[in-house]
Amino acid sequence: MRAQRATVRSWAVLWAALAVTSVGSCGAGLSDGDVAKLSEAVCVPGDKGGDFGCGCTLNDQCAGFDDETRLLICDVASGSSVGKCGDCLSLSARPSGCACGSDGDCATGLKCNGRTCQALRKRGEFCVRDTDCGSDATGNMICLPSKNWCGPLAIGAFCDFNLDCLSGICSLNRCSTGESGQPCAVDRNCKAGLICNTVAGTCGDKLADGKPCLRNTECQNQCNSFSGTCKLGATGTVCTTSNPDGDCVTGLSCVDCGGGVKTCRSGGLCS
What's this model's pTM, rounded to 2 decimal places? Predict the structure, then answer.
């Protein structure tokens, strides 16, 4: 039993020694037996004898990191949670976050964006200038001036102008296809050939007689302002003069021939 305990103690001492040795060159020592802290050891600058291969998760875990110069960073590969401290100037293809002077300083797929190597932004991501944005299967992107997002944007995205949308239609502050049934406020919210039925608030074909309407444009015939529905304004049709488009077909006028009821009449005559 004593021999077993001695063996266990020996292994414990050896493990502790190895742990100290494994992180010693990275400038971190034991801290109350906190193993988690050992895994976050920071690099010692090269001129102090350390190396730049130490594990890190954040830039400020790398001794010598300066947010202004960006000459030393924690390079965490895409999809990973832990990286290594690296000297940007020693790399021919610098990773994202490293200082740069031109695109040629950066790794494949990255651009020198302002002062650091960065991946081009995706659709809907923050941008300052057009060169911040990349391209995808739907085409090249620009930095939308009204909101600093890379666009144009997909259907359903928030928008202010038609330019904001891939479809070219911004309807009620959302990118829309402008297809039949899509929400609208005006005809330009709908694709060519469709109108905005302002009562229903949706795009569609011109309406048949009997359907509710507000404008002649929405109807196959006229929008009768007396009934508030689409209706052919033939001779004798009850009408009002409140419809700026007119309740009557071409050649007829809405006139009162007595009794206080106006009807569509030829040439405005009652006989």
Answer: 0.58
